[in-house]
Amino acid sequence: MSLIGLDIGTTGCKAMVFAKDGRVLSQARREYTIQTPQPGWAEQDAEHVWALAWQCLSQAVAAVADDPPVALALSCQGEAVIPVDAAGRALRPAILGMDTRTTAENAWLAETFGAEALFQRTGMPVHTINTLPKLLWLQRHEPTLWRNAHQFLLYEDFFLRRLGGEAVVSVCLASRTQMMNLASADWDDDILARCQIERSRLGKPAPLTGGVVGKLRPELKQELGLADDLLLVSGGHDQACAALGSGVIASGLAMVSTGTAEVVEVAMATPTLAPALREGGISVYRHVAPSLYVAMTLNHSGGLLLRWFRDTLGRWEMEQAAMTGVDAYDLLLQDAPDGPTGLLLLPHFAGSGTPTLDVHSKGAILGMTFATTKADLAKAVLEGLTYELRINLDLLRSAGVEIDELHAVGGGARSELWLQLKADICNTPLRVPMVTDAACLGAALLAGVGVGAYPDLAAAVKTTVQWRQHVAPSPEMVAAYDAGYARYRRLHPLLASLLHEL
Question: Distance between CA 244 and CA 407 in Å, rounded?
């Protein structure tokens, strides 16, 4: 019996087929782009994403003909809005979570509902990331499309509509839209009514406990060459799936995921809705584990900034990587200094995430001289991103959230240098699982529980999640980076007004 986790991320998709014991049987991945037609906008061709994801599925399933998968669940980027027609086809590019065009709509929401009241009801601070203000923007700026669209979906219900025929969305992902009541785990009819959004135009929330929500269409099953049904199981937000896939299924456990964005997820038995979290933009929503909630920090730049550095300044390294098979990132960082670079890099290339929430901030690099090397700059990218991580951990801890250890997943967990930087700058030990593509594994575990392969998620995690290494902070480096962190904390306040003018 094999299981598929299909991850639809912001800049790429992955299909991974797992054995019941967690072994990776096959995988396929594709990359795609983000469109920025205007400053502050971030859009994506959802039909292109669908086509590439289907290629991944076809390739991964073809490689396990002797053990065909029985179930699939999705791990999806959050907050994207995809208007679709009655056939489930996208009518315009998806508006992504990192899009910042909705400041006016957020001002209206704060005035109409109150920022604190919305946070207490939905767990989502008022912010441009949310789905709700994006829908309000479409109402106001694209009224013809608003009238003609059949539904407005996220990536999970968009894919399930195409795969199985019905637009169903997990409670986990729906609870990130600012339209779901956190307590009832259902769409909040008062919010919908006051925002003139019909419930029927949203995806149908899956049962809180998850489970099977459909099966693959016959014509698609035939295209994959499957003799038996492939059951579709409710999945979730990619970060919550990654938390599950790294064993974060008990209150107090935490994960740091470094992919396109960098995220911390802390599991909680009950939702902590402290004012400090709202003011810092920390969202609180339903975990994919039905009895738990998660608090999430967000840095939009994350690995996307390192990818920009590679694509813009690392052309030679990319050419060498293509010829030798050595990772381009390893080539960029191979001559990096052992300790702090002496540079300060503000990684606000898409504005800042939590906790400063400055959508008009921009990136900056300070401290360069003629002695500065490309390797110095590459490591400064990692340092700046990790200083941002520590700011978020400090905020969570100041609000009473205990974090003694981080489970590290995502592409960043494959970098020994970056792992040690996280441990040293944050003075926090890390555990690294064998499978760092934890979002795919988490989705596959949901699929497995949904079809009875495991009795529950705890058993699924015990069976599949194993550890590759433990990374401890170096006392010497902790002290060295403490000084750099103190300087970094001054950087955004000093530059903010100037950056806003640019």
Answer: 11
| Predicted confidence (pLDDT) per residue in 38-48, tens digit | 988 999 999 99
Q: How far apart are CA 42 and CA 194, in angstroms?
A: 27
The two structure tokens encoding residue 149: 């669209």
pLDDT grade, residue 300 (50/70/90)? Answer: confident
What tokens does 224 get? 């994959």
Distance of CA 352 to the CA centre of its chain: 16
At 175, give phi and psi (nearest 5°). -75, 0
How far, in Å, CA of 477 to CA of 430, rounded? 15
Cα–Cα–Cα angle for 252, 248, 53, nearest 5°? 145
Amino acid, res. 426: C
Asked if residue 172 lies in contact with residue 285, where contact means CB atoms within 8 angstroms, the answer is yes
With residue 409 as reference, give the H or E element that holds it. strand 406-409
d(CA 25, CA 4): 10
How far apart, in Å, are the Cα atoms of 222 and each of 109, 112, 227, 380, 447? 47, 50, 8, 50, 21
What's the farthest any 2 CA atoms get from each other in the chain? 64
CB-CB contact of 214 with 51 (8 Å): no
pLDDT band at 86, cuts 50/70/90? very high
Tokens standing for 167?
């637009």
Q: What distance in Å separates the CA atoms of residue 41 and residue 435, rounded to the nearest whole number? A: 33
**Peptide bond just before 355 cis, omega within 30 deg:** yes
| Distance (Å, whole) CA 7 – CA 459 | 22
- Quote the pLDDT of residue 80: 95
DSSP letter string over 101-121?
--HHHHHHHHHHH-HHHHHHH
Q: Which helix (H) or strand (E) holds 317?
A: helix 315-324
Distances (CA, A) of 335 to 107, 442, 474: 47, 36, 20
Alpha helices in 373-474 (DSSP H): 374-398, 416-426, 438-450, 457-464
- What does the pLDDT look like over 427-474, one tens digit per residue? 999 999 999 899 999 999 999 999 999 999 999 999 999 999 999 999
Angstrom distance (rounded) from CA 293 to CA 289: 8
Structure tokens, 299: 């840095």
